[in-house]
């Protein structure tokens, strides 16, 4: 059962990723990316990490990609002509790096290297919200707080930058 | 086949069959529920406006939705010439899919518990995909009004999702669980009346959640994405026939799902007097009855608001979410933490035990103190937020104007 679901999800995920890269319309690309995120969320469910799956869908598919779509549609940038590449060496370097990543993945899969050397029983509980929050609020408390301050700074910055300037009432 | 033993294959087929039956029940039940709800809403609103409403087709007009279903199915399926055909076609599918997925984890009374441990998060993750469907409909129609409606819808959804989820936090704090089934069972004490809505924090959470749910379900004071007096029908402008019906179905099923969720989270789900006393089967049936009564009462409240309150302006809508709901919901999370500390902390805070005695479900002193303290905090928060929001531009000080804090 799990194998069937995994294969189906994997096909959908890879197909959506290809569609995202290959489609010429930016809106179609974004929609394919949402499909890809949802497929990845199903894979998290298969890995017994339902919390990660829910967060994946909420944050990426539900919030970030919706903002992407919003901007693309609002600016009417879906049919933007790419024209000539402003940075000439970008394409060959991209191809090279992609090939390196692919070779690395194939090598790891072929040798069967364990990336994390931990017992499987410890990994089973990692998707539980209780486990995550216990670690977040004890071991990684400082990074967690630093990230929240970073986000707060970003929010305050956005509010300040988008605010209309108000003239001082000099007449009175 | 040595890889899969025969028994495993049998279990596999059984699982598939059970899943198919469950999915069919959800789909048929949802559609029938939606048909009933449209009739219920029209009759109720007609009663409020001193009219009769649909009462010709079938007894009391109950078959009116059937005749309308036949009408929409036989209509011509139109796609605009310059529309993006695939996106235009897929938009209603995405909307309905997002809605139906939410029904998968709703516990129907005590009879069909759902087992997903993060059920609450799952529901709001999948209903968040509605915004994608709206944008697809708005953009795929290649129509200015549709795009405007889609944009309005997304802005509204994204803004109101934050108070909606924040209003949930108190419930998660009180129950210590993200599973809807667990949350419902925790409300079973006090003879089936231990509902979270009966505490000041739960009541505040319920009211804020209800308002945000009205916006999420595009109910009338917040139906700005489809405001027909301003932008034709919003993202629905270019849809007709069955596709329009699918949008309608998804909208009503979302409202139904939101009523079910509110009944489970705040009103104790299937809990009520006599459910535990009657045993598994009879008590389960009784719990189902309680569950539906609570959900339908909430839907009636939605209809009542539709019959009473006019539509808001876009800026009023946004200001209400960010300047009123969000601060109150945040303060409510804080006072829930105080509530939990006062009612449950024994060894963690010795001072509470010295003052009010050991934490227990019959220690009424602790509950009384908690009610008074949280009520004071929440009322002060509401008063402060209303006072800040009511300030006129002439009340601003020079420094605030210089900082650009004026509206």
Give a quick summary of the entry.
With 172 residues, chain A is mainly α.
How would you describe the overall organization of this protein?
The complex is a heterodimer of chains A (172) and B (407). Chain A is mainly α and 172 residues long. Chain A has a domain at 1-77: NADH-ubiquinone/plastoquinone oxidoreductase chain 6, subunit NuoJ (Four Helix Bundle (Hemerythrin (Met), subunit A), Up-down Bundle). Helix content of chain A is 73%, strand content 0%. The longest helix of chain A has 26 residues, at 50-75. Chain A is globular and about 50 Å long. Chain A starts with a helix and ends in a 10-residue tail after the last helix. Chain B is mainly alpha-helical. Chain B has 2 domains: 1-74; 75-313, no CATH class. Chain B has helices spanning 6-48, 64-74, 85-103, 119-127, 130-140, 144-175, 180-186, 189-192, 200-216, 228-231, 241-265, 280-308, 314-344, 350-356, 364-390, 398-402. In chain B, α2 packs across α11 (241-265) and α3 (85-103) runs parallel beside α11. The longest helix of chain B is centred in the N-terminal third of the chain and has 43 residues, at 6-48. Mean pLDDT of chain B is 80; it is low at 1-7. Chains A and B meet through α2 and α3 of A and α4, α5, α6 and α16 of B.
Sketch the topology of chain A as an H/E string, one letter per element.
Answer: HHHHHHH
CATH superfamily of the domain at 1-77 in chain A: NADH-ubiquinone/plastoquinone oxidoreductase chain 6, subunit NuoJ
Helix share bin of chain B: 55-70%
| Helical amount of chain A | over 70%
* Tally of alpha and pi helices of chain A: 7
Q: Distance N terminus to C terminus of chain A?
A: 77 Å
Question: Helix/strand-derived class of chain A?
Answer: mainly alpha
Count the DSSP helices of chain B. 16
Shape call of chain A: globular
How many strands, what sense, and barrel or not for the largest sheet of chain A? none
How much of the residues of chain B is beta strand, in percent?
under 5%
Terminal residue distance of chain B: 72 Å
Structural class of chain B: mainly alpha
**Reported CATH architecture of the domain at 1-77 in chain A:** Up-down Bundle
